[in-house]
Amino acid sequence: MSNDTPAYTVREEVIDGATRYYAAFEDGNGIQQEAEIPCEVYLALDQCRLVEKRQENERGRHRERFELSEAQLAARTLSPPLPMEEAVAQAMDMQAALATLTDTQRRRFLLYHEHGLGYEQIAQAENRFISTIVESIATASKKLKNFLEGNP
Questions:
Q1: Where are the domains of the chain?
Q2: Is the predicted pLDDT of residue 148 greater than 70, yes or no?
Q3: Which of 95, 104, 86 is nearest to 144 (CA)?
Q4: DSSP string, 54-81
Q5: How far apart are CA 22 and CA 24, in angstroms?
Q6: Dihedral angle sign, alpha carbons of residues 113, 117, 118, 124
């Protein structure tokens, strides 16, 4: 929902050890109504309320990301942005490091680290065992680390 007023509220009430569940809402004439509802309906509506709250929080985080200036984003990072020359040098080093991998290792490494695919997704796409993918990416990571540290 885009406004801050929920379409309904739910509550539970315990009287003499018996729990009763209620939903409150505004009817089509603008009159507040409250009705007793079964426990299952209460749980479903409460779950919907939690989902809506999570979605609203996500929208807020999304809006915040796009409203921050580059300077504000840079201030939030653990390390300041690199000067252009250094960033280009690092990119060239990474390209050289990636060139030391086999085509298969490079593809799997990039699918995992750059494209965010999981081991299982890569294994399914390549019709391989997950353990094969895990080992291949680990080997590629080790090769890249050694290359970048100057230990080819």
A1: 8-67, 84-148
A2: yes
A3: 95
A4: HHHHHHHHHHHHHHS-HHHHHHHSSSPP
A5: 7
A6: negative
pLDDT on residue 45:
85
User: How remote is the C-alpha of 79 from its chain's centroid?
Assistant: 22
> Region 8-28: what's the mean pLDDT?
88
d(CA 42, CA 20): 10
Share of the chain above pLDDT 90, in %: 28
Pairing of strands 8-15, 18-26: antiparallel
Structure tokens at 97: 């490091």
**Using CA of residue 119, residue 124, residue 125, residue 126, what is the dihedral sign?**
positive
Whether the predicted pLDDT of 146 surpasses 60: yes
Counting Cβ atoms within 10 Å, is residue 112 exposed (0-12), middle (13-18) or buried (19+)?
buried
pLDDT of res. 25:
86
Q: What is the tens place of the pLDDT at every residue in 112-126?
A: 988 889 999 999 999
Distance (Å, rounded) from C-alpha 92 to C-alpha 137? 21
Structure letter (DSSP) for residue 82? P
Quick one: fold of 84-148?
A: Arc Repressor Mutant, subunit A (1.10.10)
